[in-house]
Amino acid sequence: MDKIYIRDLALRCIIGVYPEERREKQDVVINIVLECDHSAAAKSDQLADAVDYKSIKKEVIKLVEASEFKLIEKLADRIADTCLQNPKVRRATVTVDKPAALRFARSVAVEVTRSR
Questions:
Q1: CATH code of the domain containing 12
Q2: Total structural domains in the chain?
Q3: How far apart are the C-alpha atoms of 17 and 9, rounded to whole Å?
Q4: Are 70 and 86 in contact (CB under 8 A)?
């Protein structure tokens, strides 16, 4: 299976269970792996035959910036669902990092993989 990587997408959203986490948007860093078949795009060199990762990125940004989830698990799951809206994407692996979630740790991350 071929893959597309969207790396280190830095966004802000309301995320967390504690009242102090829900007052202001926090940073999250998102990494996405899209699994699909690139053979038609490789032959034609046409965007119509490829996964339009720019449009997927825009949908992810729209979702994340408007979200107010309590758990990064839920956020990661919804991002994966958004990626799978593209019929050419067969599997999506999403990692959501929440920097500074734990003292003395660079971040806490959750990774989910969803398939059609």
A1: 3.30.1130.10
A2: 1
A3: 23
A4: no
The DSSP bridge partners found for residue 8 are none
Task: Select which of 43, 70, 88, 98 is catalytic.
Answer: 98
Based on the residue annotation, tell me whether 98 is a catalytic residue of this protein. yes
Greatest C-alpha distance within the chain: 53
- The token pair that represents 113 in the structure block: 């993989």
**Tokens 């990762």 — which residue?**
53
The one-digit pLDDT tens for each residue of the chain (116 residues) are 999 999 999 999 999 999 999 999 999 999 999 999 999 999 999 999 999 999 999 999 999 999 999 999 999 999 999 999 999 999 999 999 999 889 999 999 999 999 98
Task: Enumerate the β-bridge partners of residue 92.
Answer: 34, 114
Instruction: Give the residue numbers spanning the domain of 53.
Output: 2-115
Q: For 85, how many CA atoms within 13 A lie in the half-sphere containing its CB?
A: 15
**Cβ 34 vs Cβ 4: under 8 Å:** yes
